[in-house]
Amino acid sequence: MSDQPRVTQRGLFYEELETGVVYVHKPGRTMTETDNVLFTTMTMNTQALHLDAAWSASQPFGQRLMNSMFTLATMVGQSVAQLTQGTIVAQLGMGEISFPHPLFHGDTLYTETIVTEKRLSSSRPGQGIVTMTHTGRNQDGVVVGKASRTALFWLKPED
C-alpha cells in the first residue's frame, strides 16, 4: 500500500442528511427492451404489456411499458451511491408509491430524492430513522414514479 490519501465512496450519514434538500442523482439510466424483458421474466411477471409488442400496440399507450417494479427499483438504485452506500443499516419500508405516467423503452430515467423527516432511533443507539421521497422523471421532465421510503441510517462514527 502506498502512503497516498485514500477516499472511499460512501453515502451520507444521518447527520449529513438535511430535510428539504433535493438530492439529484446522476447519471440517468436509459431503459432498454432487454432491461424490461429480463426483469419481467426474471420476476415471473407474465404481463403482456411488458412482453407482447403486437398486443401492446393495440392498447391505450400503443407500445410496451417498462415494468413499474423495474422503474421503482431503478429509482431507489440511483440514490444509493449518493445517499446510502455504506451508511444504511436497513430499509424499513416503502409507501405512497405511484406511477403517474408510463416509462417506455428508450426513455431515460432521472431520479431525485428529498429527505422529508428524520429522527434519532429511540431503541437503537447510534442510528437514526430517515424518511425520504424519491421522484423519477423521464428525459422530458415528466414524473413517471414517486415513492416514499423509510430507512435506518448509521450516525457518523466518532473518530
Verbal overview:
This protein is an alpha+beta fold. It has a single domain (14-154), classed as Hotdog Thioesterase (Thiol Ester Dehydrase, Chain A, Roll), CATH 3.10.129. Helix content is 23%, strand content 35%. It has four helices and five strands; from the N terminus they run βααααββββ. It has helices at residues 33-42, 48-51, 53-57, 68-84; strands spanning 22-30, 88-98, 108-120, 127-137, 143-154. The protein has a five-stranded antiparallel β-sheet, covered by helices on one side. A hairpin with a 5-residue loop joins strand 4 (127-137) and strand 5 (143-154). The two termini are 22 Å apart. The relative contact order is 0.24.
Task: Pick out the low-confidence regions.
Answer: none
Q: And the CATH topology? A: Thiol Ester Dehydrase, Chain A
CATH class equals: Alpha Beta
* N- and C-termini, Cα separation: 22 Å
How would you classify the helix and strand content by structural class? alpha+beta
Silhouette: elongated
Q: Radius of gyration, Cα only, in angstroms? A: 18 Å
Order of helices and strands: EHHHHEEEE
- State the fourth-level CATH superfamily: Hotdog Thioesterase
Task: Tally the helices.
Answer: 4
List the main descriptive attributes of the protein structure presented here.
5 strands; elongated; MaoC-like_dom; MCH/BMMD; Thiol Ester Dehydrase, Chain A; 159 residues; MaoC family dehydratase; single chain; HotDog_dom_sf; alpha+beta; five-stranded antiparallel sheet
